[in-house]
Write a structure and sequence with these properties.
The chain has 168 residues and is mainly beta. The chain has one domain. Helix content is 8%, strand content 40%. The chain has one helix and eleven strands. Strands 1, 2, 3, 4, 5, 6, 9, 10 and 11 form a nine-stranded antiparallel beta sheet that branches. Strands 7-8 form a two-stranded antiparallel ribbon. Strand 4 and strand 5 form a beta hairpin. The chain is globular and about 45 Å long.
Length: 168
């Protein structure tokens, strides 16, 4: 019994203080005009209620715009350990080479998220987040214009994600 207790104490001491909190948004309907979204609350903000500080991204069809600033990195979500502070731009977020997060097939009219493309964003409260789009189609009906994405917000206003951030 003592061995099990000691083993649990050692394991607890070696784990990060908090695990990286990855949040998911499934089937966000984005076909009815502009969708303002607050990553802290995980909710859409009605256009009539938006202020400069209550939304982080604006979704307009397939376009993702950053309120405070953002970049699209050519890197897998799990590989992005830190948000670059330099190069953040307001508005439509693309890679440095002008790439979007998706590819569009003109013959089938299908939108497909590009592998290894991750958004890094400065949020309205000056914290940082990383976000990856998983799908542009409803998970059940497969109807278009339903965005599914995952994201995490760095701790304490740091641009570092996960266990290497402040307080870890």
């Amino acid at each position: 019994m003592r061995f099990v207790l000691l083993l649990l104490m050692v394991l607890a001491a070696t784990l990060p203080a908090t695990a990286q909190d990855v949040r998911s948004v499934d089937n966000l309907f984005v076909a009815d005009g502009l969708v303002y979204f607050n990553l802290r609350t995980g909710e859409a903000v009605p256009a009539a209620e938006k202020t400069e500080t209550n939304w982080d991204i604006l979704i307009n069809g397939v376009e993702i715009h950053a309120n405070r600033g953002g970049q699209l990195l050519v890197a897998a979500f799990d590989d992005v350990a830190e948000s670059p502070v330099e190069g953040m731009k307001r508005g439509l977020v693309k890679t440095a080479d002008g790439e979007q997060w998706y590819s569009y097939d003109m013959s089938t009219h299908v939108v497909t998220p590009k592998e290894g493309h991750t958004f890094v964003l400065m949020l309205a409260d000056d914290s940082y987040a990383k976000l990856v789009v998983d799908s542009y189609y409803h998970r059940v009906t497969e109807d278009p214009r339903y965005l599914t994405f995952r994201y995490t917000i760095a701790d304490d206003g740091s641009p570092v994600f996960g266990a290497d951030g402040p307080g870890h």
